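call fold(seq) -> tokens
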Amino acid sequence: MEIDKLKLQIGANIAMHRKQAGLTQAGLAEKLNYSDKAVSKWERGESVPDVLTLAMLAECFEITVNDLLTDPEALPENPTNLEAAMTKVSEKALKRKADKGIILKLSSLLVWFVALFFYVILSYFEVTKPFSGIFFAYAIPANAIVLLSLRSAWRDFRWNKALISIIVWGSLLSLYVTFYVFWHVHLWKLFLLGIPGQIAILLWFRLFRPAKEKNPPEEIKHDES
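ret:
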């Protein structure tokens, strides 16, 4: 069947570009936030990545999505209807990805604009002038919370570990600045709380490392070349 041929072709292209990039299956899986079993099945043609993952693979290998769909050794010819359709869908997926990037940037800009707005307004009042800079400290965890919420809504969990870490350390920084500004207390020991918090975050994501492979686990000999 044509679909089986395309699966094998995509798998061969993924394996070829992975090796050219000097990545193991486990290394590529980590970059994509998939399991290495999923990468192994792609390369063997047993399953095929979705269009968003194809776009991520193309970005990782610095190639086009069409390079993953076509046979590099074949003579130039018009792509099949299936390949053309997948290329078109992938291009739309890339556009959606670019649109999401703009939304993320605008959301971050809005958070910092609010912080700057309060800073400018309160800086004109002598009574509250020393407190106006606090808003920038609180903007750090607030920005991370906004980005975490948006990415989670889009089921994009690749940056969750970093964003949650920023929320933890940013919140501690905000508390430190608050204690210093209002009560002139250097409560630096607050940051000690971040150490077990960071360890807990690392252990949590290691324990519940996302694995998008839905098939039952099986013994697979991974290509380490």
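The mean pLDDT is 80.
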